Amino acid sequence: MTHPPETQPAPTSMSLLMAMLLLLLGLLLHVVGPSEALHLSSLSVPPIIDVSQKAKLFCSYEMGNRTLNSVKWYKDGHEFFRYSPLTPPTTNWFPVKGVTIADGSSHCNQFICNVELEKLNIHSSGQYRCEVSGDAPEFELIDKAANMTVGVLPKFDPLISGVRRTYKYRDTLVANCSSEWSSPAARLTWYINNKTAPQMQLQPQINEVIHNTEGFPLYASKLQLRLHIDDQRFIGKSEMLELRCVADILGVASLRRESWLRTTIMALRDSGVNQRRAENGTCASARAATFAAWLLCLTSLLRWHCTLS
Ligand SMILES: *[C@@H]1O[C@H](CO)[C@@H](O)[C@H](O)[C@H]1NC(C)=O
Ligand SMILES: *[C@@H]1O[C@H](CO)[C@@H](O)[C@H](O)[C@H]1NC(C)=O
Ligand SMILES: *[C@@H]1O[C@H](CO)[C@@H](O)[C@H](O)[C@H]1NC(C)=O
Ligand SMILES: *[C@@H]1O[C@H](CO)[C@@H](O)[C@H](O)[C@H]1NC(C)=O
Ligand SMILES: *[C@@H]1O[C@H](CO)[C@@H](O)[C@H](O)[C@H]1NC(C)=O
């Protein structure tokens, strides 16, 4: 038994394979082939940086068949640094508000041009641009830009407060998460057992603001979690809850800070048993609040009476 239709698609897949091979060859040639065009391969500017740090700016390029005429660094359109290997002085800098080049920090050649900025302040935030130009006759220009935000970044993890060690069914767990003063404001998120807390369990985030001496607006954020423990599963089974609070700044992974703690939700049944143990069966304490505890006390008392008689 042969299946003629099965032999049919063969030529099509062959030609497809050929086409793909050709495409691959083309790509390969393009990549390894001679590249004579001026090319700015990378620009690296910290997207956000603490005011106390130094900002390293990196620019790297490939000149192809051209000669490097100059590399210029700009902040918000104002030139603050120039490297011009053909015309001495080969390095030059210009005053621009918020920009202070660290002494001896510039490092430029035919491939890279790096500078480091120090004494950052609120005016140092902005757009930084690296512009590379080839020499005569074309003076071809290429550039890339990136934004940098100077802020006051938190040094500590957010603080969780108000959480007790144990809760019972029908209790309300109230937890505050507070972040340290920062600029820009931190965005807080609560996680319960690694799942984001639903919106309805959260109070709106509070951002208090003050201005520090350097003119930065500083924000303290607070997010309150209110969890009413009414899930039916807590009637029969005690459970550990892991509460985690995460503080994010502009969504930058390296600036993420978090705190977590664990609390126990005592099942209605277990909390009754514990209560009975704690009170040694007296049933007299005002702390014997739950109906289940009373029930347990009652049954144990009855049993005691039975064994006596
Ligand atoms: C560099 O190569 C390009 C073509 O890739 C050509 O147009 C240009 O004239 C060349 N420039 C120099 C300086 O050789
Ligand atoms: C920098 O920020 C400005 C406004 O804040 C925006 O218009 C611009 O597109 C940003 N530039 C880059 C390169 O991200
Ligand atoms: C939690 O924050 C609220 C609102 O700011 C405040 O009223 C309450 O006292 C705080 N509770 C704790 C335990 O920090
Ligand atoms: C949450 O995730 C972390 C890391 O993935 C893990 O170590 C931890 O056990 C998880 N906690 C819970 C309650 O699932
Ligand atoms: C319960 O019994 C323990 C010893 O078994 C004792 O230390 C404790 O004080 C008793 N508690 C009460 C409330 O009587």
UniProtKB/TrEMBL annotation:
The keyword Lipid biosynthesis does not apply. It comes from Drosophila mojavensis (Fruit fly). It holds the Pfam family C2-set_2. SUPFAM superfamilies: Immunoglobulin (SSF48726). PROSITE patterns: IG_LIKE (PS50835). InterPro entries: CD80_C2-set, Ig-like_dom, Ig-like_dom_sf, Ig-like_fold. Gene3D superfamilies: Immunoglobulins. This is Ig-like domain-containing protein. The keyword Transport does not apply. Residues 34-149 form the Ig-like domain. Keywords: Disulfide bond, Signal. Residues 1-37 form the signal peptide. PANTHER family: BEAT PROTEIN, BEATEN PATH VA, ISOFORM A-RELATED.
